[in-house]
Amino acid sequence: MQPLQGPGGRAAAAARAGGHSGVHASGHAGHHERHHGRAAGCAGLPHLPGQHLPSGSEAGPRADPESPRSPRLHELAPQSADGEDSGGFQMVSLVSLSEVTEEGVRFRSPYDGEETLLSPERSVEIQNALGSDIIMQLDDVVSSTVTGPRVEEAMFRSIRWLDRCIAAHRRPDQQNLFAIIQGGLDAHLRTTCLEEMTKRDVPGFAIGGLSGGESKNQFWRMVALSTARLPRDKPRYLMGVGYATDLVVCVALGCDMFDCVFPTRTARFGSALVPTGNLQLKKKQYEKDFRPIDPECACPTCQTHSRAFLHALLHSDNTAALHHLTVHNIAYQLQLMSAVRASIVEKRFPDFVRQFMGTMYGDPTLCPTWATEALASVGITLA
Ligand SMILES: [Zn+2]
Fold first, then answer.
1. What start-end ranges are recorded for coiled-coil regions in this protein (predicted)?
2. d(CA 126, CA 114)
3. Helices 349-361 and 244-252, interaxial angle, to 10°?
4. pLDDT confidence of residue 354
5. Residue 236: enclosing H or E segment and its boundaries?
6. 294: CA distance to ligand 1 center in Å?
């Protein structure tokens, strides 16, 4: 396992257990070193600036000017070369197969129909056995578009389940248990959850229950509300965010780590991520385009194949083509977060944001209203 980052941190993309990709932007050093007492700021990862995790998420530099140093996860066991998380258990996507009670989540196996109980204790037991650097509490997740008493019930239950996960955790010196903030889109409920969960001495916090179909305006306000109340010296992991614009804006709002299926899923639809958006390589316009997906990209796909080749491959050996696009899209995310991290370390993050938005939207002032407002809330203007 690896410590999760020092200033000059890393950025990473990773496939979680559920096929997600996690990227990280952290880098300020809150000197979180309670487990092994290593000085913050020296470790980082030995290889790529954008580190690929086998199945996880991580932390990089924080854009927050008041937190010039990087949050640091404690050191993790030496047996794996990369940081990783377990992926946790994302029960919201299984909701049609499952029933949530105080005991846990009871669900039917999609394979043989057998009923299984996943309790907070069992969830931690499995993740302890997996040995990942980061393990996630079992939470009671409701879709962000759900309203009413169920949101409150799920939030309070997630707090109770956090306590059960903490009690069940057998390897706190080796594995970092993250709490997951819930509360839907209700500022009062989310604040209550933040107040309660931050009383617990867990090594990191995830912001959960967002990116589920709510408006971007609601989304960023809930992110900002959360980061404002999370401890400054511990990593903040925003779950389910993967669009490049969202990553950049949420780093500005104070998030360090992300994970999302987006880069890999969109690759499987034939979409290649580029600084100006994406290329739909199946389109005829790429039939005779012999440039790489992105001339600036150092990934194996861009070093080896042209858009025309990938276009032809998409129309013949589709699986191989999707593999090449997946490699590129992961590399894109890594390079993006690496650039974000470098700009924070070099204290030019606002300029980076303006340049990024200018490239993505043609002009920084053309970036979406919600993003402009979110950035303005932390003093970054695009004009
Ligand atoms: Zn590439």
1. none
2. 18
3. 160
4. 97
5. strand 236-239
6. 6
Q: How far is the CA of 295 from the centre of ligand 1 (A)?
A: 8
Mean pLDDT of 373-381: 97
Q: What are the start-end ranges of the H helices in the chain? A: 120-130, 149-168, 187-197, 216-229, 244-252, 262-268, 300-304, 307-314, 318-345, 349-361, 369-377
Active-site amino acid positions: 85, 259
Cα separation, 232 vs 285, in Å, equals 48
**Ligand 1 centroid to 103 CA: how many Å?**
46
The burial of 163, by beta-carbon neighbours within 10 Å (0-12 exposed, 13-18 middle, 19 or more buried), is given as middle
Mean of pLDDT values over 305-326: 96
Q: What tokens does 254 get?
A: 């104070």
CB 206 within 8 A of CB 224: no
pLDDT above 90: percentage of residues in the chain: 66
Task: Tell me the DSSP string of 38-55.
Answer: PPTTS---SS-SEEEESS
| 8 A C-beta contact, residue 73 and residue 176 | yes
Ligand 1: centre distance to CA 116 (Å): 42
What pLDDT, on the 0 to 100 scale, is given for residue 75?
34
pTM summary value: 0.81
* Section 247-267 average pLDDT: 96
* Residue 263 alpha carbon to ligand 1 centre in Å: 12
Assign 226 to helix, strand or coil: helix
More confident position, 296 or 32? 296
Residue 212 binned pLDDT confidence (cut-offs 50, 70, 90): confident
Centre of ligand 1 to C-alpha 349, Å, is: 24
CB 152 within 8 A of CB 196: no
Rounded to whole angstroms, the Cα distance separating 24 from 287 reads: 35
**What does the alpha-carbon distance between residue 205 and residue 179 come to, in Å, rounded to a whole number?**
5
Contact 96, 139 (CB under 8 A): no
Spell out which residues have Cβ within 5 A of ligand 1, the ion: 297, 299, 301-302, 328, 331
Q: What angle do CA 66, 180, 88 make, to 5 degrees?
A: 125
Q: Averaged over 352-364, what is the pLDDT?
A: 96
